[in-house]
Amino acid sequence: QPALTQPPSASGTPGQRVTISCSGASSNIGSNSVIWYQQLPGAAPKPLIWNNDERPSGVPDRFSGSKSGTSASLAISGLQSKDEADYYCGAWDASRNHWVFGGGTKVTVL
Amino acid sequence: QVQLVESGGVLVKPGGSLRLSCAASGFVFRNYYMSWIRQPPGKGLEWVSYINSGGDYTKYADSVKGRFTISRDNVENVLYLQMNNLRDADTAMYYCTRELGNRGLESWGQGTLVTVSS
Questions:
Q1: In this complex, do A98 and B103 lie within 8 Å of one another by their Cβ atoms?
Q2: Closest-CA residue in chain B for A45?
Q3: Which residues of B8-63 form beta strands (DSSP E)?
Q4: What is the per-residue pLDDT across A42-62, written as a single tens digit (0 to 9) for each?
Q5: DSSP one-letter string for A4-19
Q6: In this structure, how many other beta carbons lie within 10 angstroms of the beta carbon of residue B40?
C-alpha cells in the first residue's frame, strides 16, 4: 500500500485543466517538500515539480504544484496529447526515514 | 550533463543472485546521496535502498533487508546493488537515482530490468 494516496486516473480534453491530488501524513508531506514525477510510456520517471511548486528547467509553465498541510496537488493547464503519462508524487518520510511515493495517476487526453 | 547508466539486469531463477551497477558521470559523484528505486511491471514506484555520499550509511526497504546490499565506489564513480536470494516479487525495472535536497530524487537513469522466474 503506497504511503501517499493518489487517484488512479484522471482525464480531460485538449486545452482543459486537470488536477491530481496527493494525500499524505504529517511525517511526509506535512513536514517535507513534495516532488512530482512524470513517466511517459516506456521511459524513466522525470521530475516535473520539486520543492512543492518549483519547475525544473525546461518544464513548461502549464504544469504547477501546490501544497497545503498534508496534501499536495499537481495541475496541468492547456492539456495536450503529449501530456498522456503516469504522474507520481513523492516525499521524504521522517518516520520511515526514506522516500515514499503515491501509487500513480494515469492521465488520459480524450 | 548528469548521466546515470544502469546495467546488470537479466533473467534469474528464484534464489539466485545478481549485481546491478550504475555508472555515474557529469557530476562529482562522491558528493551525493544515491538511491535505488524499482518499478514492477505495470505498477508504481518503490524505494529500495539509499547510501550516503561517503558510503558508510545505508538503509533498506523491509522487503529487501537482509538480501540486498547497496555500495558505491567513489573513485570509479559507480553505484552497486548486490541482490541475493531473489524472489518473484523482486521482478522490476531498477532505477539508479541521485538525491539533491528539496529537489528529491532529481536525476534518474534509464533503468535495468530484473526478471526473477523459474
A1: no
A2: B108
A3: 11-12, 18-25, 34-39, 46-51, 58-60
A4: 999 999 999 999 999 999 999
A5: BB--SEEEE-TT--EE
A6: 13
